[in-house]
Design brief:
The chain is of the alpha/beta class. Helices cover about 25% and strands about 30% of the residues. About 40% of the residues are buried. The structure holds S-adenosyl-L-homocysteine. S-adenosyl-L-homocysteine binds next to strand 2, helix 4 and strand 4.
Length: about 210
C-alpha cells in the first residue's frame, strides 16, 4: 500500500481530526523506522516486528494516539516505549524546534536503533532507562504517552504531568488494553476511554510481573 492510499482510507473513515497531525504524518517516512525487510509494507495498516519483542504500532493506532495527545508547539513531552522512534518523530514535528521530546526505552539494542532513525530529529532525546517510573529529571511534562501496555497508571506518572496536561495509556492485561486519555486540569483528573487496543507489555518496576 502507498502512503496516499492509507490517508484516503483514513479520510473515508473520518479518522482525521487534526490536520497538523496529518501534515506530520506526511512529513515523517515510516519506511525509515521499520526493519529493512519490511520497507515495502511500511504503509500497510499493521504493526510490524522490530525484534526484541517490540513492534512499531499500526499506523491507525499511531494516528488516533497522536491526535488524542493534542501536542502543541513548544510542548515538552515524555514517551514510554521508544522502540523504532516513529511516534517520537511525529511528536517532534508537532512540538517544533522549541519543543522537546524525551523518549524512554528499556532495551539497549532498540535505544541504538531509535537513535539512528531519529538523527535528523534534533529535539528528540532517547533515554535508556526504565520508563515505568516516568522520567523525573525533566518533569513536569505537557503530555505523557505510553506506547506500551500498562497494568495501571501510577501516581508517580501523574505527578510528572503539568496542570493542564494530558496522559495517554493503554491499561489492561498482557493481551488486551483499554486506551485511556487522562486530562489534568484545575487539580482534577478526567478520564476518557478511546477503545480497545493491543500493545507490547510494559517491563520494569511498575510493569507486568
Ligand atoms: N512507540 C514505538 C512502539 C513501542 S513498542 C514506535 O513508534 O516504534 C513498546 C516498546 O516499549 C518496546 O520497544 C519495549 O521494549 C518498550 N518498553 C517496555 N517496557 C519499558 C519500560 N519499562 N521502559 C521503557 N520502555 C519499555
Amino acid at each position: 500500500m502507498q502512503k496516499s492510499t492509507l490517508i484516503k482510507h483514513w479520510q473515508e473513515k473520518c479518522l482525521i481530526k487534526d490536520n497538523l497531525v496529518l501534515e506530520a504524518f506526511k512529513k515523517v517516512k515510516r519506511e525509515n523506522f521499520v526493519l529493512k525487510q519490511y520497507r515495502k509494507q511500511a504503509y500497510e495498516d499493521v504493526p510490524l516486528p522490530l525484534g526484541f519483542k517490540a513492534t512499531i504500532s499500526q499506523p491507525t493506532t499511531v494516528l488516533i494516539m497522536t491526535q488524542a495527545l493534542e501536542a502543541q508547539q513548544d510542548n515538552k513531552i515524555l514517551e514510554i516505549g521508544t522502540a523504532s522512534g516513529y511516534q517520537a518523530a511525529l511528536l517532534s514535528v508537532l512540538v517544533g524546534d522549541k519543543g522537546k521530546i524525551y523518549t524512554t526505552e528499556i532495551v539497549p539494542e532498540l535505544v541504538e536503533f531509535a537513535r539512528k532513525n531519529l538523527k535528523k530529529f534534533k529535539n528528540v532525546e532517547v533515554i535508556h532507562t526504565d520508563g515505568s517510573k516516568g522520567y523525573k529529571k525533566e518533569a513536569p511534562y505537557d503530555a505523557i504517552i505510553f506506547t506500551v501496555a500498562v497494568p495501571k497508571i501510577e501516581n508517580i506518572i501523574l505527578e510528572q504531568l503539568k496542570d493542564p496536561g494530558i496522559c495517554l495509556a493503554p491499561v489492561g492485561d498482557k493481551e488486551l488494553q483499554e486506551l485511556f486519555k487522562i486530562k489534568k486540569e484545575n487539580l482534577q483528573l478526567k478520564k476518557e476511554s478511546l477503545g480497545y487496543f493491543q500493545f507490547v507489555p510494559l517491563q520494569g518496576k511498575y510493569g507486568f510481573k
